[in-house]
C-alpha cells in the first residue's frame, strides 16, 4: 500500500542514561491543524480500503441481524418500583424503563435515542433513590468519560433545572434514605489543571436536591495524588459513610464515619491488600485478599472496628477465586470463578453454606441482584453458545426460574466450546477457551482469532458474543486466553502480570499462539490476535516481540507508548499497574516492552488494523497515531497497516448499534481478506464466493 505521507522528526530524549527516540511526537497534539489533517487523511484511506474488501456488505447484513435484537436486563427494586433496561430491534440505544410493582405497566424513564438528533449524547450509570422517586444520571457527550449529572422525577419525567452538576467524570450518586440528597465524587473542570493531574483533585461532596451545586459541601478533600482514586459509599440506612482511597487495583485504605461527624475514622490501611465494605444493620461485611489471594469475607462490628476484632465468616477457597459478594434476602451471595467459569454460592450471614445456585450450564453468570431484606433476586447467565438469559430465584427456597432470554438468529447447537490448558514460557499453566463450529478438523488450517486482556484484575469469562458467529460460520476458531494480570485466580494471578512482571502477560499470549500451532488448530499465517485498551498494549507488544507468530493484528484504543503514557488521559491512575518512566527501575521495565519504541525497520510485521476513537479521554489516541506512523514507515514491512478512527466515540466506542455493525463489518472483512479466508456468512456464500 502507498500510505499518506507522515513526516518524522529527530526527537530524542535521554532518560536515566538511555537515549529514547520519539520521531512522531508531533502527532501527540490532537488539536494541531496538521494532526487533524493527518487523522482525516488516514481514516479516509482506511475506510476506502475496507469498503473495497470482498464480503464486507454481506458481513454488515449478518451483523444487522445479530445486533438488532430485543432484550431485557435483570430488574432491580427501589421502594415499590422496578427499574430495568430494554434493547429494541428498531432502536440504536437501550432504553431505561420503570414500573410500579412487578405487574405494573412499563413506562419509559430515559430514552438515550431522544437525547440528541445525531446520537452523540450518551447515558452513563443511572442511579435511582432508595424510595424510587428520583433518579440521578450522567450524560456523556460523544460517549466520553466526562459527564454532567442530572436529576429526574420518576413519576413526572421532569428534569430538574437546578440539580445539574458538572465535573461528574467519576461520579456515582450515593442517595440518602429519604431521597433528599446524595453524596458523589466530583472532579473540577478547571482547564488550568493539567489533564494528568486531575484525578488527584477528586473530592467527595454532598448535594441537597433543589440547591445550587456550586454550594455543595465537601465531605472529603482531594488526595492531591493523581495515581489514586477516591470513592465514596453510604449505607442503605444512611448511618455509615465511607471513603476508599484506591492505589491502583491491588491496594486501598478505607475510612468511615457517621454523617454529620467531622472526623473520619480509619477502618483499615491497605498494605498490599484491597478491601470492599458492605454495610448492613450495624455490621460491616469486608471482602478482602489480605492474607488470602483468592479472597475471603470478614464481619466487623463498627463499635469494635479494630483489626484484631474482625471475625472471619467465609474463608479462602484454595480452588476458586471469590469475584464478588452481595447481600441479598438476608444471605450472602458469593460469585466465584473456578478456572474462569462462574459458580454462585449462598451462605448465611455468618458464612454457613446454604446452597450452590443451579446454573444452566458451564458459563458466566452475574452475582445475585436484589435487596438485603427481599427474598426475590435475579441473575444473568450466558455462555459462548448461549445468548444472555435472565433468571429469577428465591434466596430462601433456592427455586430458579427463567425470567427472560435474548432471541438471536442462530443455531446454538451448531457450535461447541472447550477449555484447554497450555504452558507459558516459565511453565505456568494458563487456561484458554476455544469456540468453533462442530466438525472442526484439526489440520492446522482453521483461521483463528485469539483474544486477550491480561491486566487490572479483569477476568475473561465465557460470555456470549454475537459478533464472532460469522467467523465461526466461516470455519474459524475464536480463542480467549486467561492471561496473567487478570483476576481469574485471584490476587497472585494479577500480581504475576503487573508492574515488573508485565512481560509474563506477553509470554502467556505467545504460549497460546505456539500451542494453537503445535496442536494443529491453526498456523501463523492463519492466526490473528485482537485486544483493546490494556489488551491493545498486549497485542502491540506481541506484534513487535514475535511478529512471525501472527498473520494479523486488530488493536483497539491502546496504550503503546509506555514511556509517556502517564502524561496523557487518565494515565497517572495506572502507575500502580504499570509503573512510571519517572522511576529509573520502572522505566527500564517499561522501555523494554513499549511497543512504539520497538518498531524496527528490517521486520515484516503482521497486517495491522488500528481501531481508535476521536473522543477517547481515558487512553489518549496519540498512542494509536504514533504507532501506526511508525509501522507504516518501517521500510521492511509490506503488510497492510490501517488506522480507523470512530467519530463521536469515547474509549468504549460509540454506543449506537449502527456504528457497532459498521465497526464489526470492517474488522472481520479485514481479517477475512488478510488471512485469505472464504467468507460464508450465516450459511450463505458472500459475493464473489
From TrEMBL:
Residues annotated as domain Peptidase S9A N-terminal: 4-405
Family matches, as InterPro entries: AB_hydrolase_fold, Pept_S9_AS, Pept_S9A_N, Peptidase_S9_cat, Peptidase_S9A, Prolyl_oligopep/macrocyclase
Gene3D superfamilies: alpha/beta hydrolase, Prolyl oligopeptidase, N-terminal domain
Reactions catalysed: Hydrolysis of Pro-|-Xaa >> Ala-|-Xaa in oligopeptides
One Pfam family hit: Peptidase_S9
Superkingdom as given in the UniProt entry: Bacteria
Keywords: Hydrolase, Protease, Serine protease
Peptidase S9 prolyl oligopeptidase catalytic domain boundaries: 463-676
Enzyme Commission numbers on file: 3.4.21.26
PANTHER family for the chain: PROLYL ENDOPEPTIDASE (PTHR42881)
Family membership noted in the UniProt record: Belongs to the peptidase S9A family.
Protein name, UniProt field: prolyl oligopeptidase
Origin species: Corallococcus praedator
Record lineage: Bacteria, Pseudomonadati, Myxococcota, Myxococcia, Myxococcales
Amino acid at each position: 500500500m502507498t500510505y499518506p505521507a507522515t513526516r518524522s522528526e529527530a526527537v530524542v530524549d535521554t532518560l536515566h542514561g538511555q537515549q529514547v527516540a520519539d520521531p512522531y511526537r508531533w502527532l501527540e497534539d490532537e488539536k494541531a491543524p496538521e494532526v487533524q489533517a493527518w487523522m482525516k487523511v488516514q481514516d479516509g484511506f482506511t475506510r476506502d480500503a475496507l469498503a473495497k474488501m470482498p464480503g464486507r456488505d454481506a458481513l454488515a447484513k449478518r451483523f444487522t441481524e445479530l445486533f438488532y435484537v430485543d432484550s431485557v436486563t435483570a430488574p432491580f427494586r427501589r421502594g415499590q418500583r422496578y427499574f430495568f433496561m430494554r434493547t429494541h430491534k428498531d432502536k440504536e440505544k437501550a432504553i431505561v424503563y420503570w414500573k410500579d410493582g412487578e405487574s405494573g405497566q412499563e413506562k419509559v424513564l430515559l430514552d438515550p435515542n431522544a437525547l440528541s438528533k445525531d446520537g452523540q449524547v450518551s447515558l452513563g450509570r443511572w442511579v435511582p433513590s432508595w424510595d424510587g422517586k428520583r433518579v440521578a444520571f450522567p450524560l456523556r457527550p460523544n460517549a466520553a468519560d466526562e459527564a454532567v449529572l442530572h436529576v429526574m422525577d420518576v413519576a413526572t419525567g421532569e428534569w430538574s433545572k437546578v440539580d445539574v452538576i458538572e465535573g461528574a467524570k467519576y461520579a456515582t450518586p450515593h442517595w440518602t434514605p429519604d431521597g433528599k440528597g446524595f453524596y458523589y465524587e466530583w472532579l473540577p473542570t478547571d482547564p488550568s489543571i493539567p489533564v494528568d493531574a486531575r484525578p488527584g483533585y477528586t473530592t467527595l461532596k454532598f448535594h441537597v436536591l433543589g440547591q445550587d451545586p456550586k454550594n455543595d459541601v465537601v465531605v472529603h478533600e482531594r488526595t492531591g495524588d493523581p495515581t489514586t482514586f477516591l470513592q465514596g459509599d453510604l449505607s442503605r440506612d444512611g448511618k455509615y459513610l465511607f471513603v476508599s482511597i484506591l492505589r491502583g487495583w491491588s491496594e486501598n485504605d478505607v475510612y468511615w464515619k457517621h454523617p454529620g461527624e467531622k472526623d473520619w475514622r480509619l477502618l483499615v490501611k491497605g498494605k498490599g491488600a484491597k478491601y470492599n465494605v458492605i454495610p448492613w444493620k450495624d455490621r460491616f461485611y469486608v471482602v478482602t485478599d489480605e492474607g488470602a489471594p483468592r479472597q475471603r469475607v470478614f464481619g466487623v462490628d463498627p463499635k469494635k472496628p479494630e483489626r484484631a476484632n474482625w471475625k472471619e465468616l467465609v474463608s479462602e477457597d484454595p480452588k476458586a477465586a471469590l469475584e464478588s459478594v452481595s447481600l441479598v434476602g438476608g444471605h450472602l451471595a458469593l460469585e466465584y470463578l473456578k478456572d474462569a467459569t462462574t459458580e454462585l454460592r449462598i451462605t448465611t450471614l455468618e458464612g454457613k453454606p446454604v446452597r450452590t445456585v443451579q446454573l444452566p450450564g458451564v458459563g458466566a453468570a452475574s452475582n445475585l441482584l436484589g435487596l438485603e431484606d427481599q427474598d426475590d433476586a435475579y441473575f444473568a447467565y450466558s455462555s459462548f453458545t448461549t445468548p444472555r438469559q435472565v433468571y429469577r430465584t428465591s434466596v430462601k427456597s433456592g427455586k430458579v426460574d427463567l425470567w427472560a432470554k435474548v432471541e438471536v438468529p442462530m443455531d446454538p447447537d451448531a457450535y461447541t466450546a472447550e477449555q484447554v490448558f497450555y504452558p507459558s514460557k516459565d511453565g505456568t499453566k494458563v487456561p484458554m477457551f476455544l469456540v468453533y463450529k462442530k466438525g472442526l478438523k484439526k489440520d492446522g488450517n482453521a483461521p483463528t482469532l485469539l483474544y486477550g486482556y491480561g491486566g487490572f484484575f479483569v477476568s475473561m469469562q465465557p460470555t456470549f458474543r454475537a459478533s464472532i458467529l460469522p467467523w465461526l460460520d466461516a470455519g474459524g476458531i475464536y480463542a480467549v486466553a486467561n492471561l496473567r494480570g487478570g483476576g481469574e485466580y485471584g490476587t497472585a494471578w494479577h500480581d504475576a502480570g503487573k508492574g515488573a512482571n508485565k512481560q509474563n502477560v506477553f509470554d502467556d499470549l505467545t504460549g497460546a499462539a505456539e500451542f494453537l500451532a503445535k496442536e494443529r488448530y491453526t498456523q501463523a499465517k492463519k492466526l490473528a490476535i485482537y485486544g483493546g485498551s490494556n489488551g491493545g498494549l498486549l497485542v502491540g507488544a506481541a506484534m513487535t516481540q514475535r511478529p512471525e507468530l501472527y498473520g494479523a493484528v486488530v488493536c483497539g484504543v491502546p496504550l503503546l507508548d509506555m514511556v509517556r503514557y502517564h502524561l496523557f488521559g487518565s494515565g497517572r491512575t495506572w502507575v500502580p499497574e504499570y509503573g512510571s518512566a519517572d522511576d529509573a527501575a520502572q522505566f527500564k521495565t517499561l522501555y523494554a516492552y513499549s511497543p512504539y519504541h520497538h518498531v524496527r525497520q528490517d521486520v515484516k510485521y503482521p497486517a495491522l488494523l488500528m481501531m481508535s476513537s476521536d473522543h477517547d479521554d481515558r487512553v489518549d489516541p496519540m498512542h494509536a497515531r504514533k504507532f501506526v506512523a511508525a509501522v507504516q514507515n518501517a521500510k521492511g514491512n509490506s503488510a497492510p497497516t490501517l488506522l480507523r478512527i470512530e467519530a463521536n466515540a469515547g474509549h468504549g466506542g460509540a454506543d449506537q448499534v449502527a456504528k457497532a455493525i459498521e465497526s464489526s463489518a470492517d474488522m472481520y472483512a479485514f481479517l477475512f481478506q488478510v488471512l485469505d479466508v472464504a467468507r460464508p456468512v450465516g450459511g450463505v456464500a458472500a459475493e464473489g464466493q
